[in-house]
Amino acid sequence: MTIARISELDRRTTQSGKANNGLWLLEFERQKPLRPDPLTGWNGSGDTNTQVRITFKTKDEAVAFCDSRGIAYHLIPAAPVKMKIQAYADNFR
To answer: Which superkingdom heads the taxonomic lineage of this protein's source (predicted)?
Structure first.
């Protein structure tokens, strides 16, 4: 059975804008274990569901998508953003 993970996209550290703020990402969890390739030694799997990434504007849209297709899911909320506001002069104390 396919299990999906629905998570809220975090803002990147280098990103100051709010363009993609509040988007939700649906990814499928790995069903088959990784196995090393005998020729190259790289890890690989025949499970291609892990390559699927679907974004939604709201959490409700992502949940409705999973419910309509009978996909089990779990929600992962984003960590709260901690902003430390300080003056430029505080850098030289």
So the answer is: Bacteria
Half-sphere exposure for 83 (CA within 13 Å, toward CB): 5
- Domain around 31: 3-92
pTM over 0.90: no
pLDDT in tens, 38-72: 899 899 888 888 899 999 999 999 999 999 999 99
CA 3/CA 73 separation, integer angstroms: 5
How would you label 6-19 residue by residue, b for 16+ Cβ within 10 Å and e otherwise?
Answer: bbbeeeeeeeeeee
